[in-house]
Design brief:
Structural class: alpha/beta
Helix content: 25-40%
Number of strands: 21
Strand order of the largest sheet: 6-5-4-3-2-1-21
Shape: globular
Length: about 450
């Protein structure tokens, strides 16, 4: 039995690992590469394995960097089950349909330009039909329910605290009398989320695959983060313009809304016109309410018998394009949460065109911004950015709030690993160089464990 790494090996996107045991092949995640143009180009590459020969897929959670190439996998011949928690399946339904729509729209727009230039036309990475075919393959697995999914492969999903339904994957493997337990962390959340219970490590393992997104640093304390948000809200109100919040539609938007409901009076939120301007986020919020049994005690009590409109009476969800366009006539007092979270597309770009050049406006960055993204450029202090072919001067104030990350910081990652019996061999994935190197140094110092840092295509025996 062995495992090979075909994404998120030296980077934070494209999660994809192939496990071979007893003549069967199992895929852990099948995520899309995101960020720089050269990274996203890898989404067009052929898989380094035959999709039709895979026997099963286990999906840790719904985020596109973990699920986004599943429709390509299906287009290229995969017909087996895709195992995930029911909440992950609900969110993947939202994300994959949206991703397919964007792929088709991008190809159509690109082809109009290519026709004018006499160039060959392109096809979308995948279509809505591919997405629907993928969704029909999903097979629900409940948390903490060991399930035999292949001969010699038993899977148990345990809560990872990252987003709704996110799981760490524990695989009990048997081949010719040899037994191994592999633990794949997926993406691990912080211990003090306002919505979800803390992540839970497995009790034991023979090999651990651990994410390392923030392996080199810790986040600000949650109380400090809340004070910072309050300060940004007050500063933005006093400046007299609008406040734009690019936020991931899955997880971050719902966490913000929960925080707004918890601190409504303290943060004087009733004076704002609150908008969630993202059809995907609106659908994802409804999915969260449907799975409220997964909330922690605080969020469960907050939402018990109530919806968001009761908790935030001034909130409006703008699903249609026309509603979204009307927001850009508002000159003051609009607080707009819109995607995409890294400002690489979506409605936030339209709001930037109308607000980014205005000194009285503010932008609050609340999530990870990958290298090469527009969001990273704003965080790094760019004085001008290009949006839809137009150069836009950056005059609005840019505020970065780092403590809301859905990823654990270094202390929490080290503690998660340290709680596993016997400190088993460790492989660090899902991290850029500084994240992986930082966490590797930490576990070496704390536990005397030398972590392995695989590169793309590397294969290791279990």
């Amino acid at each position: 039995m062995d495992i090979s790494f075909h994404g998120a090996a030296g980077g934070v996107t494209g999660s994809c690992h192939v496990l071979r045991v007893g003549g069967h092949q199992l895929l852990l995640d099948c995520g899309m590469f995101q960020g720089r143009q050269e990274e996203e180009a890898h989404n067009h590459d052929p898989f380094p394995f035959d999709a039709a020969t895979l026997d099963a897929v286990v999906l840790s959670h719904a985020h596109i960097d973990h699920s986004g190439r599943l429709p390509i996998l299906v287009r290229r011949g995969y017909r087996g089950p895709i195992h995930a928690t029911p909440a992950t399946i609900d969110l993947a339904r939202v994300l994959l349909r949206d991703a397919a729509h964007l792929q088709e729209a991008d190809a159509e727009r690109d082809n109009r330009r290519r026709q004018r230039q006499g160039k060959a036309l392109v096809k979308p990475l995948f279509t809505r039909d591919d997405a629907e075919a993928t969704l029909r393959l999903f097979a629900p697995l409940e948390f903490d329910t060991p399930t035999d999914i292949l001969p010699g492969v038993r899977v148990t999903l345990i809560p990872a605290g990252h987003i709704l339904g996110a799981a760490s994957v524990v695989l009990d493997l048997e081949e010719e009398g040899r037994r191994r337990r592999l633990a794949f962390s997926g993406d691990i959340g912080q211990d003090d989320s306002c919505m979800l219970p803390p992540p839970r490590p497995p009790d034991r393992a023979d090999l651990v695959l651990l994410e390392s997104t923030y392996g080199d640093r810790n986040h600000r304390a949650r109380a400090d983060t809340h004070r910072e948000i309050a300060e940004v809200l007050e500063s933005a109100w006093q400046a007299g313009g609008n406040l734009l919040i690019p936020a991931f539609a899955i997880g971050r938007t719902q966490e913000l809304l929960t925080l707004f409901a918890l601190h409504r009076e303290e943060w004087n939120l009733d004076r704002w016109l609150l908008f969630v301007d993202s059809p995907m986020a609106i659908q994802a919020t409804a999915a969260h309410v449907r799975h409220s049994e997964l909330f922690n005690d605080q969020a469960g009590a907050l939402f018990a018998g109530r919806d968001l409109r009761q908790l935030l009476p001034n909130l409006r969800e703008t699903a249609s394009t026309e509603e979204s366009m009307r927001l850009n006539t508002i000159r003051r007092g609009a607080l707009i949460i819109a995607g995409s979270g890294m400002c690489t597309g979506g409605r936030i770009l339209h709001h930037f065109r109308y607000n980014l050049w205005r000194r009285e406006c503010r932008v609050m960055i609340v999530g990870y911004q990958g290298e090469g993204t527009l969001g990273r450029k704003l965080v790094d202090g760019a004085s001008e950015v290009r949006i839809h072919g137009e150069d836009i001067r950056v005059a609005a104030g840019i505020h970065t709030v780092g403590g809301l990350s859905a990823h654990a910081g270094q202390d929490e990652l080290a503690a998660w690993y340290g709680a596993i019996e016997g400190r088993p061999p460790l492989v660090l994935v899902h991290g850029e160089a500084r994240g992986r190197d930082g966490l590797a140094a930490r576990v070496q110092a704390d536990f005397g464990v030398h972590a392995r840092l695989p590169v793309y295509g590397e294969r290791m025996a279990l």
